[in-house]
Amino acid sequence: MSNRHFLNLTDAGADGIAAMLADALDRKAARAGFPKGRADADAPLAGHTLAMVFEKNSTRTRFSFDMAIRQLGGTSIVSDAGSMQLGRGESVADTARILSGYVDAIMIRTDDHAKIEEMAHYASVPVINGLTDASHPCQIMADLLTIIESGKTLPGLKVAWLGDGNNVLASIVEAAGLMHFDVVAACPQGYMPTEADVARGKGRARIVSTPREAVEGADIVVTDTWISMGQAHAETKLAALTPYQVDAALMALAKPDAKFLHCLPAHRGEEVTPEVIDGPQSLIWQEAENRLHAQKSVLRWCFGQIG
Ligand code: CP
Ligand code: NVA
């Protein structure tokens, strides 16, 4: 089989995503009560090593992928790009070919999405997107898992996004197009997603300018930091986004059983109030833990074990 790269959700398609979500639910249940460092009983990736390369900071992606490959019976090598020759000019293409000789899969977090495409082009092992400026598919796998665990079904769901039209929104919109739910995103002028990003929603994504329009009747309310990694801390941007803060009054417009998601790290008092993110509708801790469970299934998909 040719390499299965996971650069965006479309690489797996609706069937692949459904298979990964089912696998993640099964595997999470099967290891309930295990110490976190114990491998799953079937250790399906025994003998496999995952390389992780970080050009940006990370807590969740770093630790959850490391534990994911261990629980699947494999091992990892984790490196910041700054301590690699990549950080002083060795090309992505050469790095891809070198790492492919040592490890069985590569996860990379980088800035320009073109870099991960170059990595995938030159690697002879699967490449996984651990976040780029353009998308964050692994995060959305965990979000979909969390939504399903909350008892909701994806088709027909209304997801409201508030704030910056960023990489996380781009992947939510892509998921909507594949899994048949609707996204209504309230973003200020100048911080809306690109037309290409909206098009990936295949008609299921709508951009509005008022938070109220997005949140009314929503099943899920999502936001993210107003300043993403690599972006300048601009007062003008913060000012434009201030009306898009998720607070209790806004949450009250969503369905009574609506849930709140945030990929984290969060900035309490900016994109969301403490009352909401630490309140009863928030699923953020489950969502963060689900990075681990979802990514185990992403790894298994990359190796052709599912989907
Ligand atoms: N949500 C997320 O990707 O977190 P990290 O930046 O900590 O990896
Ligand atoms: N949009 C954020 C997500 C962090 C996980 C960023 O790119 O910094």
Layout of secondary structure:
Layout: H1 13-30, E1 49-54, H2 60-71, E2 75-80, H3 92-100, E3 105-109, H4 113-122, E4 127-129, H5 137-149, E5 158-162, H6 167-179, E6 182-186, H7 195-199, E7 205-208, H8 211-215, E8 220-223, H9 235-241, H10 248-251, E9 259-262, H11 274-277, H12 284-302
Parallel strand pairs: 1-2, 1-3, 3-4, 5-6, 5-8, 6-7, 8-9
The chain binds phosphoric acid mono(formamide)ester and norvaline.
Norvaline binds next to α6.
CATH homologous superfamily label of the largest domain? Aspartate/ornithine carbamoyltransferase
Determine the CATH topology of the largest domain: Rossmann fold
Low-confidence spans: none
Strand content: 5-15%
- What general outline do the C-alpha atoms trace? globular
Mean pLDDT level: 97
User: What count of helical segments does DSSP give?
Assistant: 12
What profile does the largest beta sheet have? 5 strands, parallel
- Report the order of strands and helices: HEHEHEHEHEHEHEHEHHEHH
From the coordinates shown, what is the CATH architecture of the largest domain? 3-Layer(aba) Sandwich
Structural class: alpha/beta
Give your account of this protein's structure:
By secondary structure, the protein is of the alpha/beta class. It folds into two domains: 9-134 and 291-302, Aspartate/ornithine carbamoyltransferase (Rossmann fold, 3-Layer(aba) Sandwich); 151-282, Rossmann fold. The protein is built from twelve helices and nine strands. The chain has helices at 13-30, 60-71, 92-100, 113-122, 137-149, 167-179, 195-199, 211-215, 235-241, 248-251, 274-277, 284-302, and strands spanning 49-54, 75-80, 105-109, 127-129, 158-162, 182-186, 205-208, 220-223, 259-262. A five-stranded parallel beta sheet has the order 7-6-5-8-9. Helix 1 packs across helix 5 (137-149). It is globular. 49% of the residues are buried. The model has no long low-confidence stretch (mean pLDDT 97).
